[in-house]
Design brief:
Elements: H1 2-24, E1 28-33, H2 41-56, E2 61-66, H3 79-84, E3 90-94, H4 95-98, H5 117-124, H6 127-137, E4 141-156, E5 171-174, H7 178-186, E6 190-193, H8 196-205, E7 210-214, H9 215-220, E8 230-233, E9 238-246, H10 247-252, H11 255-278, H12 280-289, E10 293-296, H13 299-308, H14 310-320, H15 322-334
Parallel strand pairs: 1-2, 1-3, 5-6, 5-7, 8-10
Antiparallel strand pairs: 3-9, 4-7, 4-8, 4-9
């Protein structure tokens, strides 16, 4: 009788153990927020991450991508807060959109800090990049890897722009960051803050004269179709993307899955950066073929914009952190 009881207990314990193993191996799904869809490199970065995670976990882990800021009702500046609160599990987000909650991210919006992609890589891959990641993590979100939205160029419907004087009085749509307001005000423009969802209708009606965005956005969104006849390649700022996860979600993951997700994010980010940069010349030719006049600045013309925006540094370096700004400048100078 006793033997039968022990056998029954052993069977029960074995069954419970198997149940726990099955539960731990159960497929899990996490939400991933992005602002742009898979028509754009930004959205493709998120999809690539999901694809690599699905493949490397043998289907145990699914990242479901929600583009167009669906999870924050179209308000892209709420994405970081929603992820920190656990309303979003993960995201591939913009330094611009997250800067209201993480002031250090305004580093990348400082005008004319990064003249080329080598400068971008020197910052993100060095001490300054680690300082930015530390700032993000201190606010309840775990940064995993870098991607790239690219250099933001200036378009408008009125005239070719090759000096600050050309911007005088122009209504330029900018994103929801006070730093952008300050930059375009310093250049004599009339910056108008609005979401991307509202920008294209405003360009169509002439409520605003121009906008600034990476070439990929200008190309894919066909901004030339809403009267944007002039495009100035001024490389005034670069907008890195960041792959990240909610801290609580991250801490609940087994170490093996954390490493899988992190490495997949690194690989997806590198894939997207290389793809975006490789497509630059092709996109530019496509834009020119549609009748857009492209203005490329020489060193003297570019320096006139640099000089006109120095007041932005005086205002924003203390907000971002002088130590971080100095580390970024050192990285650029040493590249």
């Amino acid at each position: 009788m006793l033997t039968r009881r022990f056998s029954s207990l052993s069977a029960t314990l074995a069954g419970a153990a198997l149940f726990c193993v099955a539960l731990s191996a159960q497929a899990r799904e996490y939400s991933v927020s992005t602002v742009l869809s898979a028509d754009f490199p930004w959205g493709q970065a998120a999809e690539k991450w999901a694809e690599l995670v699905e493949e490397r976990s043998d289907g145990r882990i699914t990242l479901r991508v929600y583009p167009n800021s669906q999870l924050v009702s179209g308000d892209q500046t709420r994405e970081f807060s929603a992820m920190r609160q656990g309303l979003i599990d993960m995201a591939v987000g913009s330094t611009i959109n997250w800067s209201p909650q993480v002031p250090e991210l305004n580093l990348f919006s400082l005008p004319f800090l990064m003249p080329d992609t080598d400068a971008v890589d020197a910052i993100t891959g060095g001490e300054a990049g680690q300082m930015v990641f530390d700032a993000i993590e201190s606010r309840g979100v775990v940064p995993l890897a870098w991607g790239e939205n690219g250099f933001r160029e200036l378009s408008n419907s009125k005239l070719p722009i090759d000096s600050p004087d050309d911007l005088d009085g122009l209504k330029i749509r900018v994103v929801g960051s006070p730093l952008f307001q300050d930059t375009f005000t310093a250049l004599g423009a009339n910056p108008t803050q609005m979401s991307w969802a509202d920008a294209k209708p405003a360009l169509t009606t002439g409520a605003v004269d121009g906008q600034e965005n990476p070439l990929s956005v200008f190309d894919v969104a066909r901004i030339d179709q809403v009267g944007q006849k002039y495009l100035t390649l001024w490389h005034y700022m670069n907008d890195p993307l960041i792959f990240a996860a909610n801290q609580r979600v991250w801490q609940q993951l087994p170490e093996e899955d954390r490493e899988l997700l992190r490495q997949a994010a690194i690989d997806a980010g590198q894939w997207e950066i290389e793809m975006s940069r490789d497509q630059k010349d092709e996109r530019l030719e496509a834009i020119k073929s549609r009748g857009v006049e492209v203005i490329e600045l020489d060193e003297t013309q570019r320096q006139s914009f640099v000089d006109a925006t120095q007041s932005v540094y005086e205002t924003w370096a203390p907000e971002i952190g002088q130590e971080l700004v100095d580390a970024a400048r050192q990285a650029v100078e040493s590249r």
